[in-house]
Amino acid sequence: MLCDRCRRASKTSSIISRVKSSKSQRDYPRALVAHHGVNATLRRLPCVTTMAIEDGVYDTVVELRPTYFLERKRRASEQRTSPAPIGKAALIILNSPLTDIEYFRRLHAHSSFCICADGGANRLHDLLTSGLPNSRWQEGLKTALPELIHGDLDSLDDGVRKRYEQLGVKITHDPDQYSTDFGKAVKVALKRVSDAKDVLVLGSLGGRVDQGIGLLHELYREQKQKHPEVRFWLFSEASVSVMLQPGTTLLHMPLSGGLIKRNVGILPIYGPAQITLKGFEWDVENWSTEMGGSVSTSNHIAADQLTVTTDKEVLFTVERATNR
């Protein structure tokens, strides 16, 4: 959707000269590129929206880099070279098993706000103190203190609560039984980081099936119905997942970085869809996909850039490499 400035620019032919992107091989109107910040930093950002021209018609192309948050980086709040970090992110820790501390630290480094959803504080506590003698628990927790612990607090361990309170972490109670701890955490996080562009959800799809499906349901609801201006990313034990909106998405998927594996899926879990895939081992064109019908699971990355065009929301998921 074009903003007012871009809409005005699109009607003034004298300022719509085209600029060629050497990597994506797409044409972008220069005026829109300049306004929306599509420049040399494009491939270093998690998401950029550009406007491609074909036969005089503008088509919104969303460019995503799923590996972005897996890369090494200092925490956004510690960035001193830029007064206003581009694309602030909030990190939500769910009450799911956490075993990969490097995985967590990379996500934490990319966030400007970290919140534990109720029992997520127990999981983070255990992860950060693992391998340390009990006398050094403060040392472990201080390496990554959350800004907030929030929820109905029925899962928060008393001992864990006391330790975090001793270190000055704020703990807030929301007794509402008509919303989940995840929903509560999203609401608070986006109030605290009002200019957040991404929400990183560190959780699990393993364990109980109903909880896993429930999490995917909530991701859809938050993304589609409540916060369409924010992109939600699910970082589970083995995968990185994100919902792709109707239209065209260009995914930058460099296997050379060793952060992801070649296994991907495009899942129509939110309803039947018509999709076109390019850059995959098994490309399709105007292909009908739905649960109970044909589904693109265990597809493979065949190029550094993948293109997915869909008429309905689909879940894109890629297997992450471990021990990186």
TrEMBL record:
CDD domains for the chain: TPK
Organism listed in the record: Teratosphaeria nubilosa
Enzyme class at the top of the EC tree: transferase
Listed InterPro entries: Thi_PPkinase (IPR006282), Thiamin_pyrophosphokinase_euk (IPR016966), Thiamin_PyroPKinase_B1-bd (IPR007373), TPK_B1-bd_sf (IPR036371), TPK_catalytic (IPR007371), TPK_catalytic_sf (IPR036759)
UniProt entry keywords in alphabetical sequence: ATP-binding, Kinase, Nucleotide-binding, Transferase
Cross-referenced SUPFAM superfamilies: Thiamin pyrophosphokinase, catalytic domain (SSF63999), Thiamin pyrophosphokinase, substrate-binding domain (SSF63862)
Highest classification ranks of the organism: Eukaryota, Fungi, Dikarya, Ascomycota, Pezizomycotina
EC number, as in UniProt: 2.7.6.2
Full protein name: Thiamine pyrophosphokinase
Alphabetical list of SMART domains matching this protein: TPK_B1_binding (SM00983)
Gene3D superfamilies on file: Thiamin pyrophosphokinase, catalytic domain
Residues of the Thiamin pyrophosphokinase thiamin-binding domain: 247-315
UniProt record similarity statement: Belongs to the thiamine pyrophosphokinase family.
Catalytic activity, as annotated: thiamine + ATP = thiamine diphosphate + AMP + H(+)
GO biological process: thiamine diphosphate biosynthetic process; thiamine metabolic process
Top-level lineage group: Eukaryota
Pathway where it operates: Cofactor biosynthesis; thiamine diphosphate biosynthesis; thiamine diphosphate from thiamine: step 1/1
Molecular function (Gene Ontology), one example: thiamine diphosphokinase activity
